[in-house]
Amino acid sequence: MADQLIIGRHPVLEALRAGRPLNRIFLQRHASGDILQEILQLAKERQVPVKQVPAEKLRRMTRATHQGCIALASPVVYLELQQVISYVVEKGETPLFILVEGVTDVRNLGAIARSAHCFGAQALILPGKDTAPINEQAIKASAGALEQLMVARITHTRAAIQELHLNGIQVIASSVKEGCLPRQVDWTQPVALLVGAEDQGLSDAELKLADRVVTIPIQAGFDSLNVSVAAGILLYEAAMQRNQLFSSSK
Q: Domains in the chain and their CATH numbers?
């Protein structure tokens, strides 16, 4: 199923005013006008990413009259991070979140969400920029898990980590080297697992923001695991420590 397009300045503006969940807004470069200024302001308030693109990009997206403005609708509702934290805590649950930084492949994003839901995580935290959108392909790759998880959209990872810390939630970063073993982390505490881009992982600056760094041991002579596989392994360890799996197995 193709992404649902919202085409034209007025339809995009009305979608923003109505609070409709949007993945991204594309604006033609050098376009101007009062309506566009209001679109930009509302997009900022709702943390909807806006990308300036050439006219050719918009023409490839649709043959309809677009007025230099197209939005991609989202199949899920995005929440604010504090909303998610408050909801989980008020339910009496221990937060287990996954913060995804720079994952651009929708299939990887879907697979991460699938593991998150299977192993008891309550929410996925996504930066608005440089991250794969939640579209029908991502939903399919997640086997529907993206429709079960809460999804928080954030503007900056650093600010999100600060907010997590203010709420007593540790941030555990996944790295290919120089981290502790997964079993050495206390996953029974409120935790947000931070994973990075498919090709480069997390930067040194991002790793320094975390409370601990964890490394999955793998066979010598090989580079690293796929990000969705690594996320699944670490979330499995969290679920085992929390006795959410096989607690009654013999």
A: 5-73 (3.30.1330.30), 78-241 (3.40.1280.10)
